Amino acid sequence: MAVMEVIKMGNPVLREKCLPVAPDEIGSQDFQDFIDDLIETMQEEDGAGIAAPQVGLLKRLFVIEMDSNPRYPDQQNFPLTVVINPRIRRLSEETTDSWEGCLSIPGIRGRLKRYQHVELSGLDRYGEKLQMVLDGFPAIVAQHELDHLDGILFIDRMDDLKTLSFESEFGKHGDG
Question: Which cofactors does the annotated protein need, by name (predicted)?
């Protein structure tokens, strides 16, 4: 396994729409090795999730996990989940305020609204159907990662850019 370089905002790859993963790709050793490297990269960078385009692969794949993450000390843990060709369906119109950061926009957080309750579906790392209901922070992370697959960054979803904050200032001056 290997930690890959996370590309940063400004790299045009982050603005591309990703292609679906073909069924015959999923079982290949190269693809499985890529999944392992993506997981290792997320964990090394203390991410709650990471999408394939963040390391330069324009395929519809992301991984999410929360396990006592120092970047999000007050958030609930959730298990490692690999999602290929993901889809998200909102389960209600209820939204929540989300202070988000991104490995491709290091050191910055911003506030936006995300759906509170969603259904995440797709395929797991072995090509088996995956379907789960997510609430709260896991739902936010999945929506954030799905956006990456469509070339959308969290800053594109912000209603008020005045909430952009360096992480070093986050929480010092208000409700962060």
Answer: Fe(2+)
Answer yes or no: is 144 a known binding residue.
yes
Cα–Cα–Cα angle for 58, 19, 125, nearest 5°? 80
140, 44 Cβ separation under 8 angstroms: no
Q: Whole-model pTM?
A: 0.94
In sequence order, what are the beta bridge partners of 133?
Answer: 119
Residue 117 labelled as part of a binding site: no
Residue in the block written with tokens 């909102």: 90
Type of residue found at 95: T
Q: Is 103 domain-assigned?
A: yes
Q: Which residue has the tokens 């290949």?
A: 28
In a domain, 2, yes or no: no
Q: What's the whole-number mean pLDDT along residues 117-130? A: 98
Which helix (H) or strand (E) element contains residue 30? Answer: helix 29-44
Answer yes or no: is 144 within a domain.
yes
Q: Which residues are catalytic?
A: 145
Instruction: Tell me whether residue 44 is in a domain.
Output: yes
